[in-house]
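Sample intake sheet
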Amino acid sequence: MPPLDIVFEALDRCQISVAHFITMLLTHQEYEDHRFVVDLVEHSTEVFNVFLQHPASRVQFTQQSMGVVENTYLQELSYLASEDNGSHFQASSTSTEQLENFRVTTMARKMEADAPNWWRLLGTLL
């Protein structure tokens, strides 16, 4: 009997799918420090790459991954454009002193700190 057959039988006896098993491991706090969860998280890049290489999941996984990336960029850009960020420019209330003290390098450092993923994308594109 191949080694994984024992695992498959155990999952069948428990009436649980592999996907549900992994979902439970990663979402239930009581398993947070379990060695299987730690191992899965430590090897998440490898697992991610296997999904990207598998012919049956490549397209769907790539699309879902792109959605995550797009949302990350949108969140960072929204924060950069928000008044909460502290660098929102309002021409009607900006003083001459503020304009004279403005430095592009300071703004760039703040953008890099507040939106690191977006900043890396800009660096790649430029």
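Comment: The first helix runs from residue 3 to 13. DSSP finds eight helices and no strands in the chain.
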